[in-house]
Structure formats: structure tokens, C-alpha cells
Amino acid sequence: MARGAIALLTLGLCGCEGIQSALSPLGPVAREIAALWWWMFGVGVAVFVLVLTALLYAVFSHPDRRRTVDPERMILGGGIVLPVVVLSILLPFGVIVGASVSDERAPEALTIRVRAHQWWWDIEYDDGTPAGGFTTANELYLPVGRQIELILTSADVIHSLWLPRLAGKLDLIPGRTNRLVVEADSAGILRGQCAEFCGLGHAKMALVAVAVPPEEFAAWADAQRRPAAEPEDELARRGGELFAAAGCALCHAVRGTRAWGRVGPDLTHVGGRLTIGAGLLDTTRDNLALWIAHNGALKPGNRMPDFADLDRQQRDAIAAYLESLE
Ligand code: CUA
């Protein structure tokens, strides 16, 4: 029993260290939310211990020491006074945190537009100049120590962006724009998840966020702005031709080529992303080939057709091409 409890506790605490845990905050907003959570947890534990002590006393104390409590006093004390006192202690914390988690934007904040789709994230960086912006998908790079203004909207149904290590969740609503201001104050990788049921692919609508030092962010942004590199080896070159011939370009964009589709994720630098399928699989050549042929089984409901009629070599060639797009 004790061993089981320890195992459970250890498991629970391991969960707090995860890349998607609100109890492992990476920025000021998340830190305040985590502090609020610990306060609520602490008060909850105190109430639990109080009730349990009273219960154990009632069950195990000597019969001579027990007496019936007047029901009216019990209801007044335990049912009204205690909750009012406990909730009055907690309420100010909630109000203070809620007020400080505002959407005040500093002038030097970086603007990122996130447009949710069933079931992926279209991410557009906007540095204020017409030529400086670029589009990516399902992966958010953030410079450490700089405010980020996320402009959130949706292309179809209501989604919700939740990056627990950075901030609370906020809905992305079609025809409406929501703003979320976040900041990462140390480097790290975190995982976000769509937190509003949005159809069959909802559970597999994740995104990866990577907080990096400002210099590293600038280098990444420069690389993202560039059009796709010409594939160097023969297999990837053939994959590029097949990519165009198989109709991939009707839905996907690869800047610098004739692929200008905007229905699916921008693939200009897909090979440099950590995951494919919105946080589903690591970006490897095998996984890319698997995704091309069986994405419907990997992510039920996915809008992309399965290109199962391509043979193994053709899929491998396209996968090699996509992997080369770093
Ligand atoms: Cu998007 Cu749930």
C-alpha cells in the first residue's frame, strides 16, 4: 500500500517536469499560474487533512469521548462558515493573478499570427516589414526574454491554444481575433496542445515551441525567410519532381518553387522542424514516407489524402526531398 502510494506520487511528480506541464513554467505568466495552482493545492490539502482528522477521530476515538454535534451548528460551521473563509482566502490570489496576466503589449514585442486549421497550426511571423515576414507550421520559435504577441484566429471551427509552460489557454475563433502575450525567460522545448474539441483530429493537434537565445532566434528567422534550397542529391531531386507531379503543390507551399498551395502546412523548411503531422511524429525520412502513404491511419480524419498508390521508391524519393528542405 505504502509502496503503491510512493509509486503514484513519484509518477505524479514526474508529470510535473514534462514538456507540457503547467507546473514546469518557462515564463513569468506561467510562473504566476503555477504559483496560484500550488496555493489552491495547499489549501485543498489543508481542508482534506482537517476533514480526514475529524472523520478518523469520529471512527476511532473512545465512545465516551464522542458526542453528537448539533446538526444546525454542523451545517452553519462546516457548510457555510468554512467554505466562505476558505474561498475568501483563495479569491484574492485568483483575482491578482488574473489581473496581472493581461494582454499588455510592449512596443518591442514580436508579433506572430497563429491560424488554427483542422488539425494543424499555420504560423506567420511578422516583423513589421513587407519583406521580413515568413510562414511556417506547427512549430513556434521564440526568442528568450522578448515579449511575444500571439494573434490568434481560426480558419474553420473553434480551437484553443494551450502552451502550459508559457500561459493559460485561449480560444481561436473563426471571424474573431484574440491576443495572447507570452514570454519565455529561459531556453527550452515545450509542447502545446489544442484544448478545445474541434473534430476527429483534435487529440492529435499539438504544436512544438522552442525557446532559444535571441542570436539563435535571429539566425533561425534568417534561414526561414530564405526560399527552399535546391535538393542536392539525385533521390531528393527526383522527389521534388514527384512532389509537383503527384499534386502535393496544390495544397502545400514550398517557397522558391512553383508549389503555392495554402490548404495545408507550408513545407518550405519542413525538414528542419522537430515533428511532422502537428507534433505527431519525429521528422525522419521513414516517418515522412509513412505519413505520405498512411496519414489517415496515423491521424484519423486528417484532410490530406493517403498517397498509397505511389510505390515505395516514389514515396522514399518525396520523403528525401522533404527531408532536404531544412
Ligand atoms: Cu483544434 Cu481541438
Topology record:
Layout (H helix, E strand, L loop, with lengths): L1 H15 L11 H33 L10 H30 L9 E8 L2 E7 L7 E4 L1 E5 L4 E7 L4 E4 L7 E3 L5 E5 L5 E7 L11 E7 L1 H12 L8 H12 L7 E2 L4 E2 L14 E2 L4 E2 L2 H14 L13 H13 L2
Parallel strand pairs: 1-5, 4-10
Antiparallel strand pairs: 1-2, 2-3, 5-8, 6-7, 6-9, 9-10, 11-12, 13-14
Helix pairs in contact: 2-3, 5-7, 6-7
Short description:
The chain has seven helices and 14 strands. It is of the alpha+beta class and 326 residues long. The chain has two domains: 199 residues, Cupredoxins -  blue copper proteins (Immunoglobulin-like); 91 residues, Cupredoxins -  blue copper proteins (Immunoglobulin-like), CATH 2.60.40.
CATH homology superfamily of the largest domain: Cupredoxins -  blue copper proteins
Instruction: Please provide the ordered H/E string of secondary-structure elements.
Output: HHHEEEEEEEEEEHHEEEEHH
What is the CATH class designation of the largest domain?
A: Mainly Beta
Bin the helical content.
25-40%
How many distinct domains? 2
Sheet with most strands: strand arrangement:
3-2-1-5-8
The set of bound ligands, ions and cofactors reads:
dinuclear copper ion
CATH second-level architecture of the largest domain:
Sandwich
Ranges where pLDDT stays below 50 over 5 or more residues in a row are: 10-15
CATH topology of the largest domain: the name is Immunoglobulin-like
Write down the Rg: 26 Å
How many helical elements? 7
Shape category: elongated
Q: Based on the structure, what is the oligomeric state of the protein chains? A: single chain
> How widely separated are the two ends?
52 Å
